[in-house]
Amino acid sequence: MMKKTLLAASFAAASLLGAAQLQADVKIGFLGGFTGPIEGMTPAIHAGAELAKNQVNAQGGLLDGRQFVMPTGDTTCADSSAASNAADRMVNSERVTAIVGALCTGATIAAANNAAVPGGVVMISPASTAPAVTEINDNGLVFRTVPSDAFQGEALAHLLISKGINEVVSTYVNNDYGRGLAMQFVETYESLGGYVGSNLAHEDNRADYRSELGSLSGEMIENLVVFAYADSSGQTILRQAHESGNFQQYIGVDGMISDTLIEAIGADVLEGMIATRPGSPDLPGADIFEAAAKEAGFDPNAVFAAQAYDAAFILALAVEKNGSDSREGLADAVRAVATAPGEVILPGEWEKAKRLIAEGKDINYEGAAGQHEFDENGDIMGVVVEMAIEGGRLVTKGVIDF
């Protein structure tokens, strides 16, 4: 009998220890397109979020010294069911406090509608740029550290006009991202006097886009704009456009900016390609992040890496401000830590932030990719930068002023 009692006590102690160990971690999940049309871009974005996590853990951890852990989920970017399932696992199995992500707009909308919002979980996307994100019925839970495509579409239009590119044809991937970006571009470009000969939708993940390219080339315009993804339709379209010989100037946007595109098609083919992407303003946080990213072994200029870092750091600050790993009250805490007034916190300054919060003082995070003063929809203003492919590599040309 004594032996059974001791055994039962041991099991009880082990269960309590296991519960304490689980309690010791604060989980903030990461939803990304680890497979699918942006799989070449996702590792650097994830690395940005991981950098924030590692800095927090190295400088005292969250709350009473608990570890910040980041379980991951693959949305595939293109499959709303996969995004919903990954988010459901995060919310209901992993029991995360918040989520960095998702990345593609459709994935973010599916994850929010089917799991995060019903579960009361805050999401901060570092990459979902379509205007449709603003329209999610999210109870104030969905934010993003990247400006809307309504802004990027305008910037691209102004950039092309400034370069004397006054006529184009374009094609866009037929989803929220492609449609929203293309429509804003066309509206702005034509208002500035530009001529869009044709603007055609295309479906993602097909092997042949020669029919669409044939229609576009019939306009006898050599400037081709592609609103798509570097690892799927965008890559195929540019390869087949080159094979046709009908286009001379290729133009893209953030989803097309990847080294994998250059590797797949060839630097000589893409030499001189123009693109736009959300960038970082001239703030101290940008230089701090650049140095830290290089030390961590990833490219600080990778698309959306800085935005992912900021999303993870803001969520950590919000947990600290909220005083627990509870989901309740976290959205208000996100706004509190990222909004002036308050003592400025720069990337990597976790220990300082933790001390100020403990003293009951207001803080204002100014990050790697911007100041992140969220509006009522969880959106931010931002900057868009010009990119080009020169000498076989992606080169940042500077902020687009308009």
UniProtKB/TrEMBL annotation:
InterPro entries: ANF_lig-bd_rcpt, BCAA_transport, Leu_Ile_Val-bd, Peripla_BP_I
Signal peptide: 1-24
Pfam families reported for this sequence: ANF_receptor (PF01094)
Localization in the cell: Membrane
BP GO annotations: amino acid transport
Listed transmembrane segments: none
Key words of the record: Membrane, Signal, Transmembrane, Transmembrane helix
SUPFAM superfamilies cross-referenced by the UniProt entry: Periplasmic binding protein-like I
Record-annotated Receptor ligand binding region domain positions: 49-381
Primary residence: membrane
Name of the molecule in the record: Branched-chain amino acid transport system substrate-binding protein
Species the sequence originates in: Marinospirillum celere
